[in-house]
């Protein structure tokens, strides 16, 4: 596994159908293809194919909710502990946090503290850390072009890592 993609928690639609990023307004799968991280258009029902391209996918908190407002602080703490164990076990080169809020919670940043998209200085259990925008239709913080730029940045980073000795 080259990249472990980490979402904050499943939405209601994802929990109903058993697939990641399944909400009708979620742009995650389109961004994967448009950024050329995957070579063909895929949708949430293809999430079990991500390993074909070196990706794994998980959530920090397993409990589904309509939004993140009802997640409790202890769920974030417990989720971070489980995530660290997963990373130690699968040893990805990169951990990609899908959402600034998620990155802030894992690294103890206060809410509202600015976080740039892309490669971070921090590492997590030895893996490089990248922050991608949350592609949910509820997220109005980034335009599609800005989101795509961040996903392309991940593709470029993977290209550099692949060519590094």
Q: How would a textbook summarize the main sheet?
A: 5 strands, mixed
Shape: globular
Oligomer: single chain
Proportion of β residues?
15-25%
Biggest sheet strand line-up: 2-1-3-5-4
Enumerate the spans where pLDDT stays under 50 for 5 or more consecutive residues: none
Find the count of extended strands (DSSP E, 2+ residues).
Answer: 5
Count the helices. How many? 5
Q: Please compute the radius of gyration using only Cα atoms.
A: 15 Å
Summarize model confidence as the mean pLDDT: 90
Order of helices and strands: EHHEHEHEEH
Q: Could you tell me how far the N terminus lies from the C terminus, measured between alpha carbons in angstroms?
A: 18 Å
Bin the helical content: 25-40%
């Amino acid at each position: 596994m080259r990249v472990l993609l980490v979402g904050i928690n499943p939405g209601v639609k994802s929990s109903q159908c058993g697939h990641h990023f399944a909400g009708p307004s979620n742009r995650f799968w389109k961004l994967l293809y448009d950024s050329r991280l995957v070579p063909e258009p895929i949708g949430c029902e293809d999430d079990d194919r991500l390993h074909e391209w070196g990706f794994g996918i998980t959530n920090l908190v397993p409990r589904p909710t309509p939004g993140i407002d009802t997640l409790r602080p202890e769920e974030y703490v417990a989720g971070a502990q489980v995530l660290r164990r997963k990373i130690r076990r699968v040893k990805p080169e990169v951990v990609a946090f899908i959402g600034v809020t998620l990155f802030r919670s894992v690294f103890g940043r206060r809410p509202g503290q600015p976080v740039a998209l892309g490669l971070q200085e921090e590492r997590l259990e030895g893996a490089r850390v990248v922050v991608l925008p949350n592609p949910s239709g509820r997220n109005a913080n980034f335009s599609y072009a800005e989101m795509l730029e961040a996903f392309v940045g991940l593709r470029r980073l993977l290209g550099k890592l692949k060519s590094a000795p």
